[in-house]
Amino acid sequence: MKSCNVYENGDMRKVTGDTLRPGGFLLTDKAIKVCNFKQKDKILDIGCGIGETVNRLNKVYNYDSFGIDPSEKLLELGKSKYENIKISQGKGEELSFEESFFSGVFAECTMSLMDDWKKVVLEAERVLKSEGFFIISDVYARRPEYVDELQESNINSCMRGLLNIEKLKNFALNSGFEMVYFEECTELLKSLMVKIIFKYGSMSRFWGIATCSTSSSCGNFQQILSLCRPGYFLMILRKK
């Protein structure tokens, strides 16, 4: 059976809401307090989905917000839900913005979906102004020695791309950033998993429904995923 993108599946939004991530706007709002952006600052959301964060940054905080996402389906949903929203098709590895354009860049549960997260870090550094902020919230492997096995799966979810957090930190710090804030947020991920299991009976069954995959492939994916011990984090970097 052909696999499909879990984020384009309505079952995912049933458990996460339209933000498509653990905790909804909780970490978004926390990051905004840390960064202390000014009104009308230009802010980019990489992997914006239907534009929930982009809309919030604009309507609640009065920022000049932009979003990119590779999914034409999600972008169409966003444009039909919100008027005059600045969301367009694009990839985090190839941002179509000029250098030093943004005061902040968000990547909320999307770095783990990228083909090359290192390119995303470099692109974020390029489009940020000096002392601009790169905000990352995402999943990571607390036992990264099993990550390579996980990435061989055809399950198209951020869980397949669990980050190695030490590699991410070191690469970012060697690419023009300094660490401003870090928080372990795994309880948010655990709460989401409990909600999924309560609704669908098991994580394996959820993966099968959300990704159009066979029960055997989903069971194997969940087994390897458990070995990785998924965690969740908020990291805020500042361009030097």
TrEMBL record:
| Gene3D superfamilies, A to Z | Vaccinia Virus protein VP39 (3.40.50.150)
Q: Name one GO molecular function term.
A: S-adenosylmethionine-dependent methyltransferase activity
Q: Where in this chain does the record put each Methyltransferase type domain?
A: 44-136
> Which keywords appear in this protein's UniProt record, sorted alphabetically?
Methyltransferase, Transferase
InterPro entries the UniProt entry points to: Methyltransf_11, SAM-dependent_MTases_sf
Q: Does the keyword Methyltransferase apply?
A: yes
Pfam families, A to Z? Methyltransf_11 (PF08241)
Q: In which pathway does it act?
A: Lipid metabolism; Phospholipid metabolism
The biological processes this protein is annotated with in GO are: methylation
Q: What class of enzyme is it?
A: transferase
Question: Out of the domains of life, which is the source?
Answer: Bacteria
Enzyme Commission number(s) from the entry? 2.1.1.-
Cross-referenced PANTHER family, in alphabetical order? PHOSPHOETHANOLAMINE METHYLTRANSFERASE, PHOSPHOETHANOLAMINE METHYLTRANSFERASE ISOFORM X1
Full protein name:
Putative methyltransferase YcgJ
This chain's source organism reads Clostridium homopropionicum DSM 5847
